[in-house]
Amino acid sequence: MSTRYVITFVTIMTAIVAVLLTGFRQATKAQAELNEDIFNKRAILSAVEDYLGEGVTVASLTDDAVMNIFQTQVEQVVVDASGQVVDGMMADDIDMAKEKKKPEPQRKFPLYIYSEGGSKYYILAVRGTGLWDAIWGNIALKSDLNTVVGATFDHAGETPGLGAEIKDNPAFPAQFKGKEIYTDNGRYVSITVRKGGARDPEHEVDAITGATVTSDGVSDMLYDGIKNYEPYFDKVKQSSQLITQ
Amino acid sequence: MAETATVKEAGKTKEPLFGKKEKALITDPLNDNNPITVQVLGVCSALAVTSLVYPSIVMAIAVIFVTSFSSLFTSMLRNYIPKQVRMIVQLVIIASLVTLVELTLKYLNYPIYKQLSVYIGLIITNCIVMGRLEAFSMANKPWRSFLDGIGNGLGYGAILIIVGLLREIFGKGSLFAGSGIAMNIIGPSPDYWINTNESFLFGWYTNNNLMVMSAAAMFIIGVLIWIQRSWNKKLVDVS
């Protein structure tokens, strides 16, 4: 077989395959993006699962219901490193993986404010590093900006049965409910995942046996991640004080 | 005239659409020539995706699709594929089918796509697919190659689902977690998985974390090979 034949064969074949795959991708693109969007929105809502209503779980919500909650009850805000709200941006537009690569003063952070029954819940996004790869999560705070009402975690490649338990075992994120990120005299301490068992019931949770590196990764992620929102929190607290005065 | 007719007839009787040989193409890989337990191919993904049954089933379907259609297309093109670039052409066929699977999963069921993550893409490097193309499709007619592909996909899928069943029941105490019919089989924690019903059996059972890890699949596949060889004497090496 001549070289010319080989080249013609390969070129024609590649062209056919390329056209077919591009066509298929274009045909499925819109739905696939919507699916991804809903998948991410469900993860955000699971941080406030206790406040979705009586007996409502994220899994029991239909896709339409998820979109509806985001349209009617969730306010999407983007805050910058100095705590200013960035105008004209939606929290959905922020890619945390990209933000982490930017120099710190230029970073922007997504914030979802979920309102239910007159109270507001602030859902923060955090991202860090586990044992093998990136880990990320959402932490929901009460309107006092101190008490945690829920948390969800996900990971790119932690070990199943060990590090992956941060996502797979609902008992792990459930520990965060009711913890506080500030001490009584207002010092920022975040929440620590403590190897050997939590000692301070207000600011610590139990680590996962056999997953020390992932557990420490969660601690660091929470400390650095929640801290990013501190300038914004200060501004919110100041303005609410002004209103009460 | 008469001669050509008999030749045609002979051709027809030689290769019925679904005769003994065709049947063997499907059944052989299930037992005597199983890709995982006998040929020991495709073990990587068998260890990685089998911690739950539902992803195992999806993975099995994906592999059956890829093996069968890549065999079919390779066999159709076998007389035109230049020998020098044979492997690359096969790889293009496999890769495009795998991409199709990936796009379809994203379209139909995004959570399961996330769960299987890289392992869908890694079907491209699954030795079963490439092995069957090289060993069978390059030398056989399309229909038979197609059946051979389905057979090998089924043989792979069967092992995947058996391992998945054992690992999920003993590792998580549940079955079909992540799908619409998730249920709790054994163990005390009915709300371990969001979708499970009340636990009804063996409330004392504590989930075995070893089963969740890939190492457990290695043991289970080892035991499966042992069971299969003690029961199927054909596989025992007499030397």
TrEMBL record, chain A:
GO terms for molecular function: FMN binding; oxidoreductase activity, acting on NAD(P)H, quinone or similar compound as acceptor. GO terms for biological process: sodium ion transport. It is an enzyme of class 7 (translocase). The modification FMN phosphoryl threonine is found at residue 212. The keyword Aminoacyl-tRNA synthetase does not apply. It comes from the Bacteria. It is a single-pass membrane protein. Coiled coil: none annotated. It catalyses: a ubiquinone + n Na(+)(in) + NADH + H(+) = a ubiquinol + n Na(+)(out) + NAD(+). Residues 130-229 form the FMN-binding domain. It is found in: Cell membrane. NQR complex catalyzes the reduction of ubiquinone-1 to ubiquinol by two successive reactions, coupled with the transport of Na(+) ions from the cytoplasm to the periplasm. NqrA to NqrE are probably involved in the second step, the conversion of ubisemiquinone to ubiquinol. HAMAP family: NqrC (MF_00427). Belongs to the NqrC family. PANTHER family: NA(+)-TRANSLOCATING NADH-QUINONE REDUCTASE SUBUNIT C (PTHR37838). This is Na(+)-translocating NADH-quinone reductase subunit C. It comes from Flavilitoribacter nigricans (strain ATCC 23147 / DSM 23189 / NBRC 102662 / NCIMB 1420 / SS-2). The gene is nqrC.
